[in-house]
TrEMBL record:
Origin species: Desulfococcus multivorans DSM 2059
Name assigned to this protein: ABC transporter related protein
Coiled coil: none
Alphabetically ordered keywords of this record: ATP-binding, Cell membrane, Membrane, Nucleotide-binding, Translocase, Transport
Family: Belongs to the ABC transporter superfamily.
Length: 249
């Protein structure tokens, strides 16, 4: 069953520059899709259309069968996004307040908010962090706070824009483990990254965007071959002919 259906998506920046030039993509519920592309290829612009932060100038984006242009609020409840800069998503004075922000804006009663926040924090390994100040946490912990905020909204689709950016090795391992666990729990995952080695072995599909178009779309082991021609570094393991299963570590 398709949870995301994008057809003929065109987006132009205010100066008239075309950022997306007719994107077509279908994502099935429960898939793990990695989106790759060179800087300026349109990856982040594309992701922002999935939860109606941006609306198409032409074409359409359907979230669970409903156009984002017709019901952007529904799209934002279904599709949660973790931005590259986790600090930009922090709005609460404490971790608990930050994770509770979304459910509070849904108008839920306090006991339901508490249950959602408690469950979301436990799911990302942040139980006991309720009273900590989020801006003082490590990079990996901030990303997990952002993920918890999305989980508290009960988002079925989780979108991550460069989730490993500026993280040290322990932070990368923490965040990757959470993303993989969320996929195993049934969430649909879309993720952009410049470092395919970290995540590609966990993915169902690799989509490559180049110059605002889908240039490749297929099984990771096949699609990654020769990806350098599209401005994305092909992992050494792929160059050496190692199977994807051997990348897991």
């Amino acid at each position: 069953m398709a949870i995301l259906e994008v057809s003929g998506l065109i987006h132009r920046f205010p100066d008239g520059t075309t950022a997306l030039s007719g994107i077509d993509l279908v994502v099935r519920e429960g898939e793990f899709v990695v989106v790759a592309g060179a800087n300026g290829s349109g990856k982040t612009t594309f992701l922002r259309h999935l939860n109606a932060l941006l609306l198409p100038h032409d074409g359409r984006v359907l979230v669970d069968g409903v156009s984002t242009a017709d019901d952007p609020i529904r799209a934002r409840r279904t599709v949660g996004m973790v931005f590259q800069d986790a600090d930009s998503q922090i709005v609460g004075e404490t971790v608990y307040d930050d994770v509770a922000f979304g459910p509070e804006n849904l108008g839920l009663e306090p006991d339901r908010i508490h249950r959602r926040v408690t469950a979301a924090m436990a799911a990302v390994g942040l139980a006991g962090f309720e009273d900590q100040r989020p801006h003082l946490l490590s990079g990996g912990e901030k990303r997990r706070v952002a993920i918890a905020g999305i989980l508290a909204m009960r988002s079925r689709v989780l979108v991550f824009d460069e989730p490993f950016s500026n993280l040290d090795y322990p932070g990368v391992r923490q965040v990757l483990a959470q993303i993989v666990a969320l996929h195993r729990q049934g969430h649909t995952i879309l993720l952009t990254t410049h470092d395919l080695e970290k995540v590609l072995a966990h993915a169902d599909r690799l989509v490559v965007i180049s110059a605002g178009r889908v240039a490749r779309n297929g099984l990771p082991a096949e699609t990654v071959k020769g990806i350098d021609a599209l401005g994305v570094r092909e992992p050494e393991a792929s160059r050496n002919g190692m199977p994807l299963s051997s990348w897991l570590r």
